[in-house]
Design brief:
This protein is mostly helical. It is 56% helix and 3% strand. The chain has a two-stranded antiparallel sheet with strand order 1-2. A hairpin with a 5-residue loop joins strand 1 and strand 2. The N and C termini lie far apart (63 Å). InterPro entries: CblAdoTrfase-like, CblAdoTrfase-like_sf, PduO-typ. Its EC number is 2.5.1.17.
Length: 192
Amino acid sequence: MKIYTRHGDKGKTQIIGSTMVDKDDTRVEAYGTVDELNSWIGYTAANLNQATANLQSELEEIQQLLFDVGRDLATPATDQKHDYVFTTAIADQQTKWLEDRIDAYVAATPTINRFILPGGSPQAAALHVARTITRRAERCIVALQGQAAINPNTLVFINRLSDYFFAAARYANVQNGETDIFYRNGNPVFKN
């Protein structure tokens, strides 16, 4: 199998089912953003330290699931040869797994009642970037959903995933001995 197909030379790409679409197609934007997220998670996992090493297996599992999500986003609902792989049963189970991890990380971190700035330890900062890429992926999926039928399980999972990354980022800060910085809400420190 060759890596290059030369379809991209004309601004086209092939989605599942052999249909050719423009590279800026909403469907390509949705699964492409999920792919970007998956790559960022790989980068984040590669930069975990001893304090956050317990996140490694979770991040790898999320990467596996994101391949399923991306595959389903690349599959038109009209394709008769390819079924969605991210079934309701799998999505329900994996969304519940994320919720359990979120609850565990919330329980392990100080209670907050204000917005926090993304950052802290390098691992937490990377997880906050994953959160924002996830939110962008969610917006892309919603845009695609407005134009074509999609597997609705993908949106539910992606929505919960951004919450996971927020909770995991806060947990990474606790594990690294970092304190979250609260948004000061319009009270500038530097004044003329």
